[in-house]
UniProtKB/TrEMBL annotation:
CDD domains registered for this protein in UniProt: MFS_DtpA_like
Organism expressing this protein natively: Massilia niabensis
Stated name of the protein: Peptide MFS transporter
UniProt keyword annotations, A-Z: Cell membrane, Membrane, Peptide transport, Protein transport, Transmembrane, Transmembrane helix, Transport
Compartments where located: Cell membrane
Keyword Transmembrane part of the UniProt annotation: yes
Residue span(s) of domain Major facilitator superfamily (MFS) profile: 1-489
NCBIfam families recorded: yjdL_sub1_fam
Length: 499
């Protein structure tokens, strides 16, 4: 039997994909750090509308990969879709950099970002899966490090874009700082594309069947035309909240229907893995409801009820703007990712690795602890303002939980789903994530502060009440995850027996 000799090592191929993901997330999270504040402070939206618009936009951004994954698998190719998606994303952020407070302009720019992310996200993740196909312990470790790329890029941008916005606004006495920050996001994507161009040879051997064929210009034109239509549809959905709600719930029904169809039509040897993937995907839906609080309720909590000065024993260390607190999530994940990746690899060698289902249960328990930390913030508040250190502790727990659940979600798809469904199922996973992010916006509105309410003593109990409820919900998710562990062990054993 002839052994295939790869032109580049797995590590070099992975680093290339890791780098483009880093720069793409640099753009996305730089925009996310500001978007709710932009709608509330610049566009004049109330909390409720801002939360739901961003929840709907996040849903669209995560639903689009279901189609993008199929286009990568069957039409243009995985590598080509990754590049095309990055180009379209840079255009979307560039549109947001144009000074305007017109809602249709904002929603159209977000529509371009939806299309770009739909092409980029599932195909980049699928390339990682293809690089390490067949090695479960390495897949868990690779996706944990891949998840770290998200947070290297997002840390820099979430610290930088609020600073750029404040600096330009203050220096020039206008509101152009918001748009300068969005331009910064666009430049990040352009750097990522340049990096990919220079390192393209390392991933030339990795991809789907269409990647190995000449580019079909007719198919490319059809994809681009479909993208233009999708931009228009996205803008309309964002403008009308009732449409957004219908779209999200319909997407949920479609995803469940597709899962049921694939399970019913699959080979008996594939069925156990698909059922396991469905159970874990449903758990991920609940996680992303918690996740969406970072850019909605937690973000507005930082604006109204967090002391922005970091102090130790009365000594001032530094001051952050409210938007920069979101970077704590990424900073913690950068600290924790290498530790977890090392632990997974070591446990894999000794045969003592915790199952993905077990990691999900542990992750929900840690998320619960994080939200209870925020909930207890009211007990330590002075005149309605709580310490910045509460945010550091809460984000640390929340981020560890995120790594155990969301960080392994893509690894779960890679492990349990047949290769021929890889791109599409990566997309279906993102659809489930998107649905729950819209639901996260709905949940955030439980802490929607009426316009004109500025007294921290009035707003603090509104937020802490929501955070305590979220902590209780995360405890319930932990109990459910523990209850399904025996079933998951049985499904996993059946799946491995048929491989």
């Amino acid at each position: 039997m002839k052994t295939e000799i790869l032109p580049y090592s797995q590590t070099r191929s992975f680093v290339t994909v890791w780098m483009i993901e880093l720069w793409e997330r640099f753009g996305y999270y730089g925009m996310q750090a500001l978007i709710v504040y932009f709608m509330v402070q610049r566009m004049g939206f109330d909390d409720g509308r801002a939360n739901l618009v961003w929840g709907a936009a996040a849903a669209l951004i995560y639903v689009a990969p279901a189609i993008g994954g199929w286009i990568g698998d069957q039409v243009l190719g995985t590598r080509r879709c990754m590049v095309l998606g990055a180009i379209i994303l840079s255009l979307g952020y560039a549109l947001m950099a144009i000074p305007s407070t017109n809602t249709w302009h904002l929603f159209s720019a977000l529509g371009v970002i939806v299309v770009g992310n739909g092409l980029f996200k599932p195909n980049t993740a699928n390339l990682v899966r293809k690089i390490y196909e067949g090695d479960d312990s390495k897949i868990d470790s690779a996706f944990t490090m891949y998840y770290m790329a998200v947070n290297v890029g997002s840390t820099v941008s979430m610290l930088a874009t609020p600073w750029i916005k404040d600096y330009v606004n203050t220096t020039h006495g206008n509101e152009l700082g918001w748009h300068a920050a969005y331009a910064f996001c666009s430049v990040g994507l352009m750097i990522g594309l340049l990096t990919l161009f220079l390192m393209r040879a390392t991933i030339r051997h990795v991809g789907s069947v269409p990647d190995d064929k000449p580019l079909h210009m007719g198919k490319l034109a059809m994809v681009l035309a479909g993208g233009v239509v999708a931009v228009g549809v996205s803008a309309v959905i964002l403008q009308y909240q009732s449409l957004a709600r219908i779209f999200v719930y319909l997407a949920g029904v479609v995803v469940l229907g597709i899962f049921a169809h694939l399970i019913r039509k699959s080979e008996p040897s594939e069925r156990a893995g698909l059922i396991a993937a469905l159970v874990l995907t449903l758990q991920t839906v609940f996680f992303f409801i918690f996740y969406q609080q970072m850019s909605t309720s937690l973000s507005l909590f930082a604006l109204r009820n967090v002391d922005l000065e970091f102090t130790v024993l009365g000594s001032h260390l530094w001051t952050w703007s409210p938007a920069q607190f979101q970077a704590l999530n990424a900073i913690w994940i950068m600290v924790l990712s290498p530790v977890l990746a090392f632990m997974y690899t070591r446990a894999g060698r000794t045969g003592s690795d915790l199952s993905i289902a077990g990691k999900f249960a542990l992750g929900f328990a840690v998320v619960a602890a994080g939200f209870f930390t925020y909930g207890f913030a009211g007990y330590f508040a002075v005149d309605g303002m709580t310490s910045s250190w509460i945010m550091i502790i809460g984000y640390g727990l929340y981020s560890l939980g995120e790594l155990l659940v969301s960080g392994l979600g893509l690894a779960m798809v890679a492990r349990y789903v047949p290769a021929r469904m890889g791109g599409f199922m990566m997309g279906a996973y993102f659809v489930a994530s998107g649905i729950s992010q819209y639901l996260g916006g709905v949940v955030a509105n439980l802490a929607s502060v009426p316009q004109g309410m500025t007294d921290p003593l009035q707003t603090l109990p509104i937020y802490t009440s929501l955070f305590n409820k979220l902590g209780i919900a995360a405890v319930l998710c932990t109990l459910i995850a523990l209850a399904v562990l025996p079933m998951m062990r049985k499904l996993t054993a059946t799946h491995h027996a048929h491989q």
